[in-house]
Amino acid sequence: MLELAGLYVFATSGALMAVSKGFDVVGIVVLAMLTALGGGILRDLIIGATPPAAFTDVTYLVVPLVAAAVTFFAHRLVRRLTFTMLVFDAAGLGLFCVTGTLKALEFQLGPLQAVLLGVTTAVGGGVLRDITARETPALVQVDTDLYAIPAAAGAVIIAVADRTGLPIPGFAVGAAALVFAFRVTAMLRHWTAPHARHQETGDSTP
Description:
Layout: H1 2-20, H2 25-47, H3 59-73, H4 75-78, H5 82-106, H6 111-132, H7 148-164, H8 168-189
Helix pairs in contact: 1-2, 1-3, 1-5, 2-3, 2-5, 2-6, 5-6, 5-7, 5-8, 6-7, 7-8
């Protein structure tokens, strides 16, 4: 259920970006599908879960298509809601970092590897969306609000809960909600990751 919810909200964020860029219906569907499925496909290929779930369960294709259709017909409303796209992206980030970590743990990967795959699942689709839409990916934008760090925090919570035998269902929902709140707060307060300090060269050329 978490993964299906993540598919819908991530697909909506991709479709919203396509609408904001003035893409036609094909572009809206492409960005919705890339955003929703890109990170999960990459995760499945890495862990050897082939064919990826997106190609074995039609639900994984239908959900992004529904999200794209809803966005297409509601474009007059969503065109004005730039922040809405970021909120849907934050929701997808929280849901996918949890489901990605859980699937990696199911395949007997270690906690660190599971965290890395959880983050990959969460940010992969967004990176593909931004590249396709000719945007600098939010993951590597200069002075971007925290993006990968909230996803990593959620993935760590799941890995620790699994390692210590804590009840996973409750922690999964809680971690997804925490990542969502973390990301939205970072956007509102413009929290950014630390930067490396640049050494002054002492060049006195006028």
